[in-house]
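ARCHIVE CARD
Drawer: 12
Card no.: 0347
Subject: one protein chain, sequence and derived structure
Cross-reference: see card 0346
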Amino acid sequence: MAGDDVYRGAIAAAQPVPDLGATPFTEPPPLAQARVALVTTAAVRHEADAPFGREDESFRVIRAGERLVLDHESPNFDRTGWVADANVVLPVDRLDELVGESLVGSVSPVHLSFLGSLRETLATISLDSGPAAAALLREHGVDVVVLTGV
């Protein structure tokens, strides 16, 4: 088992890293005035949405109050926290509390979920679903994104 981990680590370390150019930066408004959205890699989706498939580089739109399911397939992912409190993965209630304390301006009506256990190329996320996700968040006036990676 430990040898497999070393082998996988060596493969990952040998992968080329693309040059994405300069990193753009925009100055967000103060957090107390900002609209915040969550983006998770836990493969969370509304129960009526299509399940995430293996190597699925698409995303699902999450709205507050929806009944959610977790599609994350890795056997290494501990689901105990999710079962006890979905805020461990998608802390919407914590954002609402921060709005109530005037520390955050508002919470986006939409949040996004991706499948984080991708083993192959991320070209589709870089060129297609990533820009589409960003455009959707912009349409909803999102200033700040909190990434909850799992």
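Annotation on reverse: The chain has one domain: 39-148. Helices lie at 2-14, 80-84, 92-100, 123-139.
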